[in-house]
Amino acid sequence: MWIVIAVSVPEAVGLLFAPPSLLPQFWIWGPPLNAMTARFVAGIYLSVAVGFGLALKTKETDWEKVRLPIAMLWTFALVALVSAVVSLATDPTGFIHLDRPFTFVWFFLYGVSIVGGVYYHVVHPRKYGAKPW
Q1: How far apart are CA 42 and CA 59, in angstroms?
Q2: Is 93 helix (H, G, I), strand (E, B) or coil?
Q3: pLDDT tens-digit profile of 29-78?
Q4: Which 8-state DSSP code applies to residue 128?
Q5: Whole-angstrom Cα distance, residue 8 to residue 6?
Q6: Distance between start and end Cα atoms, the chain
């Protein structure tokens, strides 16, 4: 979860405060973002970081309180990652821009979010005697 926070916050800050001319560097999908869309996406990434931060702060006895937000976070990452992979498989030169600097940061962020989220839904609860789902 620390990895997700460490990657999400700088990415979100970049999207939130970057001048419009730099936005294509942060965005790997399709056409470049406009400033409003970039700020909206930055809000999603900041909420991911806050959600994971709250989950890290929560004691194992409070696991039920963060179960739903964590599920929302890793499910979003899974849908985004699967969408990107399908897009690459069906049109490798189209919608996903592999030449942009942050492309692999996005893929890394989604992968780590999924692994961390599934861990906290399956492995972590079992350590403390809770039901995994």
Answers
A1: 28
A2: coil
A3: 777 778 888 899 899 889 878 877 877 777 655 666 677 777 888 888 89
A4: T
A5: 6
A6: 19
